[in-house]
Backbone:
């Protein structure tokens, strides 16, 4: 009797497992073919000194670490890496603060809430290229409205040629990136805030905690894993951003805004140095992995 | 009395902050619309934040639609985005259901794997994918673009959908199965209808990703008549003189579909992110 039940259970269990695998198979197949296979190609290419013009110039090129030694001794690479880190850190921290403040505001009750929420989040679905074009126009050196506004507020007396000088070009690119990336923080943090029970705040108020104490002792700890996950996802997005910077400056002037993704793309599709470009890709991947490893404990907590 | 005044004061401060944020953050989009509706001479002479009625014109839209194949690019983008979204949503809904309902090592591993894949930089993969598609003679063929889009949409949408399925109690399906439904029938009749808001939110997200895509489209599609809207519009910057009224008109046209979809489905997005990306 018991044996019979056991047999039935295992066949249904096997059927279940087959179904689970069948359902998951297409997603796994896409990822394997288009991500894992190319990833291995990249690793291989990064150890080969090859160009690609229609086909690889030297398909049988032996393995060498020439690309890596060339990269590490190249000042352009170190500068691009430094710029990438400065760009990511400043855009990420400011958009996080803006996103957090807006999420706290939108979590309160007020008139026209839905309209305000839509207006605040509307930057999110705008393609990076379009955001780029828009900010070139806003920060235009001759006819840009930002210069006009700053002049009327007496912050500057003369038009600033934002995109002609390195530092101001970087500032422009960072502001555009912040505008594109804060809505994601607002959206995720707002969702996190909605999950915190009112009771905690009531009890804390009865105990005499002020607003700042309630924020640091209830809100922040409750949001911790949401904060880490959204910082990671947005940080990776900013670090590997290509379209926005490409549109606004193309990496210029004088490479002042050339971050790693732009350096990689130019090496690959301007000079066709696929091996060298792949090496830059491997270093980018390494930087991304460091972010991921740092956020891993919190990711595990959130997803499993 | 004192506390009442304080409360009023705080409330006024909150409204001031809200109005200030909306004014600053919505300004770039406002300026896009104003520019697209302003005559060329007015833009170059005396710009003011509030548009003057005598400077308003629709000629920018007419001219840019006349001189550039905006509508062709628009159609290409709709084709690519629709195909990518439909396939990606089908594939990821299946995977998400499997991850949510069956707790096997293989399904858990897939979930973790997709999470890692989500972290990979696109620029890293564009080189080998370009070489692969050149060998397969798929350059200038939308298949290359659609396949790459799908691959990058799947990790996002699978995790979002999994969150939705997790929020639908298993007991409903069990009840249906006791009443004689097969597992697939239970999925079709109970789970899918309940997950519709989630599917709507995930589709919106996927469509946004597909519509915005630039890197793959720029690399895999080189013929101007086959460009998507993002590549086409960025090419306007290469023109000798940039007529900003017309460029902003083109930009405004290109974001209409995605802005409309977002405005109508935004409430599902907030809920969807709660369920998916930010599972408590």
Residues:
């Amino acid at each position: 009797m018991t044996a019979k039940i056991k047999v039935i259970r295992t066949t249904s269990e096997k059927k279940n497992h087959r179904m689970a695998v069948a359902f998951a198979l297409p997603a796994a197949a896409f990822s394997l073919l288009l991500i894992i296979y190319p990833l291995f190609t990249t690793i291989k290419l990064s150890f080969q000194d090859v160009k690609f013009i229609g086909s690889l110039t030297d398909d049988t090129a032996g393995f060498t670490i020439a690309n890596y030694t060339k990269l590490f001794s190249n000042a352009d690479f170190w500068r691009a890496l430094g710029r990438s880190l400065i760009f990511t850190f400043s855009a990420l921290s400011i958009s996080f603060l803006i996103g957090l403040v807006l999420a706290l505001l939108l979590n309160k009750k007020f008139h026209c809430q839905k309209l305000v929420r839509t207006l605040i989040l509307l930057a999110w679905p705008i393609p990076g290229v379009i955001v780029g074009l828009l900010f070139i126009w806003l920060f235009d050196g001759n006819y840009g409205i930002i210069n006009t506004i700053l002049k009327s507020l007496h912050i500057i007396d003369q038009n600033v040629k934002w995109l002609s000088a390195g530092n101001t070009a970087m500032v422009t690119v960072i502001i555009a990136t912040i505008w594109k990336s804060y809505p994601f923080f607002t959206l995720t943090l707002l969702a996190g805030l909605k999950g915190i029970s009112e009771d905690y705040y009531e009890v804390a108020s009865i105990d005499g905690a002020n607003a700042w104490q309630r924020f640091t002792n209830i809100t922040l700890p409750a949001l911790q894993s949401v904060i880490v996950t959204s910082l990671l996802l947005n940080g990776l997005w900013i670090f590997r951003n290509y379209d926005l910077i490409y549109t606004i400056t193309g990496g210029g002037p004088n490479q002042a805004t050339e971050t790693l993704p732009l350096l990689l793309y130019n090496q690959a599709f301007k000079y066709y140095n696929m091996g060298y470009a792949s090496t830059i890709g491997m270093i980018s991947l390494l930087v991304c992995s460091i972010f991921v490893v740092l956020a891993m404990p919190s990711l595990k907590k959130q997803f499993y | 009395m004192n506390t009442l005044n304080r409360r009023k004061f705080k409330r006024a401060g909150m409204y001031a902050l809200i109005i200030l944020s909306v004014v600053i953050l919505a300004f770039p989009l406002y300026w896009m619309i104003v520019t697209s509706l302003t005559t060329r001479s007015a833009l170059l002479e005396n710009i003011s934040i509030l548009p003057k009625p005598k400077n308003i014109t629709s000629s920018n839209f007419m001219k840019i639609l006349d001189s550039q194949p905006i509508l062709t690019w628009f159609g290409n983008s709709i084709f690519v985005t629709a195909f990518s979204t439909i396939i990606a949503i089908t594939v990821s809904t299946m995977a998400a259901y499997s991850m949510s309902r069956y707790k096997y090592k293989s399904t858990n591993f897939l979930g973790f794997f997709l999470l890692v894949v989500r972290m990979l930089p696109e620029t890293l993969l564009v080189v080998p994918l370009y070489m692969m598609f050149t060998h397969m003679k798929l350059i200038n063929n939308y298949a290359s673009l659609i396949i790459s889009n799908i691959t990058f949409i799947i990790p996002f949408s699978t995790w979002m959908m999994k969150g939705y399925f997790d929020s639908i109690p298993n007991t409903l399906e069990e009840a249906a199965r006791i009443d004689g439904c097969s597992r697939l029938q239970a999925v079709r009749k109970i789970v899918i209808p309940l997950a519709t808001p989630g599917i709507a939110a995930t589709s919106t997200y996927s469509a946004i990703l597909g519509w915005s895509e630039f890197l793959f489209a720029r690399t895999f599609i080189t013929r101007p008549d086959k460009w998507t809207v993002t590549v086409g519009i960025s090419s306007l910057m290469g023109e000798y003189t940039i007529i900003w009224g017309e460029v902003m008109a083109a930009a405004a046209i290109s974001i209409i579909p995605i802005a409309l979809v977002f405005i109508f489905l935004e409430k599902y997005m907030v809920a969807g992110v709660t369920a998916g990306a930010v599972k408590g």
Remarks:
- Chain B has a mean pLDDT of 85.
- The radius of gyration of chain B is 24 Å.
- Chain B touches chain A through 98 residues (CB under 8 Å).
